[in-house]
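Could you help me review a protein record that somebody else here produced? My question to you is simply how this chain folds and whether the tokens agree. Thanks in advance; the entry in question is below:
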Amino acid sequence: MKNNGITTLGALKKSGYQAKTVKDEIRNNLLKKLETRENAFPGIIGYEDSVIPDTERALLSRHNILFLGLRGQAKTRMARQMVNLLDEYIPVIADSEINDDPFHPISRHARDLLERLGDETPIHWLHRSERYGEKLATPDVTVADLIGDIDPIKAANLHLSFADEQVIHFGIVPRSNRGIFVINELPDLQARIQVALFNILQEGDIQIRGFKLRLPLDILFVFTANPEDYTNRGSIVTPLKDRIQSQIITHYPRSLDLALEITAQEAELSSAQLEKVEVPDLVKILIEQVAFEARASELVDKKSGVSARLTITAYENAVSTAERRGILNKEKKVQVRIADLIGIIPAITGKIELVYEGEQEGPQQVAFNILNKAIRTQFVSYFPNPDLFKKKKQENGGNPYRSIIRWFEKGNKLHLVQDMPEKALDQQLSKVEGLRDLVKSFFPHTGNKETSLLMEFILHGLASYSLISKKLVEGDVEFGDLLGTIMNMNLENPDEDLGGEEESDPDLY
């Protein structure tokens, strides 16, 4: 219901307005969306058959909710979107600190105003966007922050004693009355502060510095928590958890296609970047595979999780890496190449928590290894599995990689400079015997850019299978013979990377 010129309680009564609790508002509006099959949580991808139905059931049941899940699983976004399930406008008594309902006032200010002015009590209309409160739980949060405290300045200005209820300064929870209040990372809230929420959730009582107030606050509470918090930083006290009626488990995208869709939706790219930089599907898939590999890695702390923000920032970094190269080379259009994925390493190292063994190896080396594993995993979706040719000697023509490997065995090396122009890259890749022919044999209709990308992909893929060597030196990549590189490898160079985890098999050749 909108304003329609209604500014007093008397006019509101004549309009036939019926007051509803916030949970009833949300329930009624959600029912309408369900009847018309309108998505109540647009932009939330991958939860259609899991988290969203659970949330809708909880809201229909008028429950307070706890979202339990790892980092980057859209818990806060889900909570914020619940605002759209509120009525667009509601009437409140003018100048009320806690959004008093004109028909059911609960604050001393509202009751006194109503008693003095009756039907002439002024009201104003509150938009649903103003009916949302959020607090990040940190160890320094106090009861005064959440519930309230005595305000000595107010007492002095109004010439009131501290025994007068009017000197109370309400905290963020009462100020969210008739709305939605969210506490993020609930276990970080000290246990004694969590206790202060008991009666608010169940009985509606609050106590401030000796003032025991019967304030039946009308609030939908939504809490978020990371399971890691239960062991590392704190816990949700049992009586509080008992008062939260629905606990909903969130999760990461369960398929690569969903992960791709999320990244495409969330990545923030300028129009200039979109116009200048082309991102091949292969590169998009490799970036998403990095997150899947990180979540499965024994060196990454699984209790902490690997946020979906990793792939979003990695995607943005990959585009910026190609954009920078294009500017340096004065190229109008550029394509993200495999070597540009070196630019996503900072996005990986900043988004993963390592176990002890991972810390010993170093975050950057772990990131390199994860990237190599992503390349290795996806390689067999485009080209034959190199492992198939390791078990026995192949007849002539049986091993599609034979000519490429032998070219490096002859002592040849291929040095790819990070920012080399597209044309120079293609010329360098064309030096490797059999490389272009192999791409064309599997992808005969690709253009020049796609062919160069796949040629580069083959080299990185063979390195990930330990069939050729790969060294990374200040962003540049050098491919060579694996055995020759091992013989000459400088063990003191921490940046050295041979690209794979397996020993080469002499029968392969």
In short: The chain has three domains: 9-249, 252-379, 385-509. The first helix runs from residue 9 to 15. The mean pLDDT is 87. Residues 9-249 form a domain with the Rossmann fold fold (CATH 3.40.50.300).
